[in-house]
Design brief:
The structure is a homodimer. By secondary structure, chain A is an all-alpha fold. The first copy, chain A, has 9 helices and no strands. The longest helix of chain A is centred in the N-terminal third of the chain and has 25 residues, at 59-83. The first copy, chain A, is elongated and about 55 Å long. Chain A binds a DNA duplex through residues 16, 37-39, 47-55, 58-59.
DNA sequence: GTCTATACTCTGATAGAC
DNA sequence: GTCTATCAGAGTATAGAC
């Protein structure tokens, strides 16, 4: 579910509500959630500070919407690639390529949404449940890979955290001038090298992923 | 340079200044830097809020000291293992095991020091230079590994970022109930699997690292 | 070094006119 | 939905007595 699909092509046509989400995500990414005031956001959008409350109940509600959108799109993607079948290696490779490409093309900047600063906000209970769903889906994929001897038999939670950390690092790296086009395959390659029992077969995984349409 | 070496054994004997650093690091880790007030820190230490300014010029100065201590210890460790010689694989394995063990045993909680929220503070210029030194040392190690055919020839900066991300993730994981004793070898193993041309030789790397004294 | 008292700024959020 | 006006609270930091 690429964000572009539900938004007008030019920024000038975006709704005020979407603009608030967009500018808030960018400011959060560079100054942190608490380091960004509602006045900062509204100045970037071009409205006065109290007008924000016509669109959101609170500042936390902005973070909540950004986070739940991102989590839902990740869960959807994991489900989509799981339905396609194929070996867990191919499934994971396709998901990583898709996720990182999506993150880097998305105008919303989601670099800090998964920091404690935001995740620990008391208002974000619903998001933490969604996060559990996402984690469970990704762990299930890794577990399938271990059972089928595709992946090494290390602690599943540790492996899932490692995968998440590499996805987030690819997002952050692109924001610091790294060549964007390379990131998805680089990150997917490194993850699969770390997890696969026989990393020498990565080229075959890449080929099968491409023939499966990605 | 383990922190225990320069501190009294029991918390009751710590200086107020060290206690401020300790409690601040813990509060930063769970609420973020901006989410932690100087009052919060002083309450945890057992002094009144203005007394903090007898020890630090500002709240930022606390983050600066925590960060520069951590960076200096990392740089020292990288230099130490580089001086010991051995293959880049063994050198990286030894560094990772040492670094993660140190992070997990250290009473100071450094989980969020490397977030933009803190790194972007204008008062932390000196730390950013130290961070460059650390990054250069780690990149040099990776570059040596690539030249010597130990490691795969992917983008060095991307690989260094991946290594950093996995170190930080091991730190965060341990704070959420993961079995602490396993983290150093798990993380070092995953990193070396990702980087080594022949991941099958990891057992040999581990053996050589242990005979080198770690 | 620690305290009390306080200054001053910034922040999130509400009220009510248009 | 956007505005002006405004508030109440929390924040960092300083002054000065002990």
């Amino acid at each position: 579910m690429p964000t572009e699909g539900k938004l007008p092509a030019t920024a000038a046509q975006w709704s005020t509500r979407e603009l608030i989400l967009l500018e808030a995500s960018r400011l959060f990414a560079t100054r942190g959630f608490r380091g960004t005031s509602t006045r900062d956001i509204c100045t970037a959008v071009g409205i006065r500070q109290p007008s924000l409350y016509s669109h959101f109940l609170s500042k936390q509600a902005i973070a909540q919407e950004l986070l739940s959108r991102d989590l839902n799109s990740g869960i959807e993607a994991l489900d989509r690639f799981a339905r396609d079948g194929g070996s867990p290696s191919v499934e994971l490779y396709r998901y990583l390529r898709w996720e990182i490409t999506y993150d880097l093309e998305d105008p919303f900047d989601k670099r800090v949404l998964y920091n404690v600063e935001i995740l620990a906000l008391p208002e974000l209970d619903g998001c933490r449940e969604l996060l559990d769903v996402y984690n469970n889906r990704l762990e299930a994929l890794i577990r399938r890979g271990i059972r089928g001897k595709d992946f090494i038999a290390l602690d599943v939670i540790f492996l899932r955290r490692t995968v998440d950390a590499i996805i987030l690092e690819a997002m952050r790296g692109s924001a610091e001038g790294a060549p964007i086009a390379d990131q998805p395959d680089l990150a997917a390659t490194v993850v699969l090298r770390a997890l696969m029992q026989t990393p020498g077969e990565i080229d075959s995984v890449r080929a099968r992923a491409h023939s499966a349409g990605l």
